[in-house]
Structures are given as structure tokens and as C-alpha cells.
Design brief:
The chain is α/β, with parallel strands linked by helices and 285 residues long. Helices cover 40% and strands 14% of the residues. The protein has a 7-stranded mixed beta sheet with strand order 1-2-3-4-5-6-7. Bound molecules: adenosine monophosphate and manganese (II) ion (3 copies).
Length: 285
């Protein structure tokens, strides 16, 4: 099964419209697809309709920004009901600090000489309530501060570098309560991206498991072979289902295109076979 259960549209920090993503996913051989924009459900209606047109099976998704133990952790909610009002209100709250944060990021970047960072980031943001670091990263590339997006995130916008502004998102337990309340299944996104020790990762997984979290991304656009091995082992140990995710944002930026990730290791349980998610897959074929 070619499943790709994590990507972004212009409703958060991707560049393509949901319908263009659906067409691209279908062209790349994806069979089961989920749109998981950061902290918003706005793209899901278009994505679901486009998936139907393209013959893709579809899962309503979202990627929730969480603060946990002093770092940012992303939790993907799969199979959520997009009409759930508690989830929608919760996501509005998660988004609410983004504009003030963007102004502070812009102040820092102005000091480096970046021209009109806030206005230019807003030009990239398809949804002004969802302005984020990727939009600033595109401005830094345009103005020659870095060769590409990945170089931006090595030298700017990350802890200890110019343009990083600490931010409190929601809590892990609150994010899972919203996801579960909306009938969804919670998955830890790209665990290999969190710069914490093995011991802390296990604490995170322990807490996530206790709160009812069901899966982790083993295959992710952010993972190399070593991370795949590590998180396959941890998925087995914790009894987590495994997800497969490109985390695609844009044709010129993302290392892995939609549906082009490696397959899941054979012995892992694919998240799309979890009974509580399986019944929420919208089948088009
Ligand atoms: P924000 O939610 O505004 O803090 O932005 C987080 C987004 O920045 C992520 O979802 C990615 O799209 C992007 N990002 C963070 N770190 C990296 C990285 N190392 N390489 C590329 N993109 C990154
Ligand atoms: Mn992103
Ligand atoms: Mn993420
Ligand atoms: Mn993502």
C-alpha cells in the first residue's frame, strides 16, 4: 500500500493548493493520502473532494504544535472529524500566538538587515493566522541569506540562532484530548527531528502512550536510515503502530516527494490498519 499520511498545503506552510497536492499524490502512485496542515482544518474539504476526483482514499488529518519539556513536538491527528467544534476551537487557540511571534521574529531579522521581513513573510503565508518559520525561511532565501530552506534552518530561526523566538504551543495532553474527542488517532510526527537524548525520547513516548497515543512516524521525510532503524525498534518496544509520511511542503524544497518514501519495515503494524482508524478511511476506489 502506498500510503502518505503527512503533508502540507498553502493553508499552512506548504505552497500547493490541496487539489494540486491530490493530483500530485495520484500521479506519484499514492493510494491512501492524508492532508495534515499545521494547526488548521481549512484545506480538508478541498483535499477530500480532490481525492475523490483522483481516485485516492483519504484520511482527514491535522498536525498539532505542542510544547513538551521545553521543546516543540508535533502530533499528527489522523481520522479526525473536521466538523468537531472543540478541535476547531482548540486549533484557533494554538494559532493565536503566531502573529505576535512573527512580529518578534521580524524584529530580530530586521537587525540583520533583512528587508521588511514581516510583510514579506505575510506575502508567502496563504493564511495570515498561520504565519510561521517556513514563510520567513522563504524570505531569507529570496534575499540571499541562505542558499536553500535547509541552510536557513541550520543558521537561522532555530534555538541559539538569529530569528528564533521561543513560543508556548499547547500541551501534549490537551492535543491528544482534542484529537481523541474528534474521533482521531494520535501519531508522533518525525521523532528523529527532536534534538533530545534517547532517554528523553523514551519519556516522551511513555507519556504519549499513557495518554492514548497510538503511533509514531517511522518513515518520515526527516529520517535517514539510522532514524528508521531506531524508531522501528522503539515502535516494536512500545507497541506503537507505524506511520509513513513524506512531510511534503513544496516541490523545490522537500527532500521526499509525495508517496516516494521508503516502505515501512515488514514486521511493523501500519497505522492505517489500526481498527479505530481503518473505519475512518474515506474509500474512493
Ligand atoms: P513553526 O510551526 O512556525 O515553528 O514552523 C515549523 C516548520 O518549519 C516545520 O513544520 C517545517 O516546515 C519547518 N522546519 C523546521 N525545521 C526545519 C528544517 N530543519 N528543515 C526544513 N524545514 C524545517
Ligand atoms: Mn511545516
Ligand atoms: Mn512537523
Ligand atoms: Mn509537517
Amino acid at each position: 500500500m502506498n500510503a502518505d499520511l503527512h503533508c502540507h498545503s498553502c493553508h499552512s506552510d506548504g505552497v500547493l493548493a490541496p487539489s494540486a497536492l491530490a493530483a500530485r499524490a495520484a500521479a506519484n502512485g499514492v493510494e491512501l493520502w492524508s492532508l495534515t496542515d499545521h494547526d488548521t482544518l481549512n484545506g480538508l474539504d478541498e483535499a477530500r473532494n480532490a481525492a475523490m476526483q483522483c481516485g485516492l482514499s483519504f484520511i482527514d488529518g491535522v498536525e498539532v504544535s505542542v510544547s513538551w519539556g521545553g521543546i516543540t513536538v508535533h502530533v499528527v491527528g489522523l481520522g479526525i472529524d473536521p466538523s468537531n467544534t472543540d478541535l476547531a476551537a482548540g486549533l484557533t487557540r494554538v494559532r493565536s500566538g503566531r502573529d505576535a511571534r512573527a512580529l518578534r521574529i521580524a524584529d530580530e531579522l530586521s537587525l540583520l538587515g533583512v528587508v521588511e521581513p514581516y510583510e514579506n513573510a505575510m506575502r508567502h503565508a496563504g493564511n495570515p493566522t498561520l504565519v510561521g518559520r517556513s514563510h520567513f525561511a522563504r524570505v531569507l532565501v529570496e534575499q540571499g541569506y541562505a542558499g536553500d530552506i535547509h541552510a536557513v534552518f541550520r543558521n537561522f530561526l532555530v534555538p541559539g540562532r538569529p530569528g528564533y523566538v521561543d513560543h508556548r504551543w499547547t500541551t501534549l495532553s490537551q492535543a491528544l484530548a482534542w484529537i481523541h474527542g474528534a474521533g482521531g488517532v494520535a501519531v508522533i510526527a518525525h521523532p528523529g527531528r527532536y534534538r533530545i537524548s534517547g532517554e528523553r525520547i523514551e519519556q516522551l513516548f511513555e507519556e504519549f502512550h499513557t495518554l492514548g497515543g497510538r503511533g509514531i512516524e517511522v518513515i518520515s521525510g526527516s529520517h535517514g536510515d539510522a532514524e528508521v532503524r531506531t524508531f522501528a525498534r522503539l515502535a516494536r518496544r512500545f507497541g506503537f503502530y507505524a506511520s509513513r509520511a513524506s512531510d511534503f511542503h513544496a516541490p523545490d524544497e522537500s527532500a521526499v516527494d509525495l508517496g516516494c518514501s521508503a516502505p515501512l519495515p515488514d514486521d511493523l503494524k501500519p497505522i492505517w490498519l489500526a481498527p479505530e482508524l481503518n473505519e475512518r478511511v474515506i474509500c474512493m476506489t
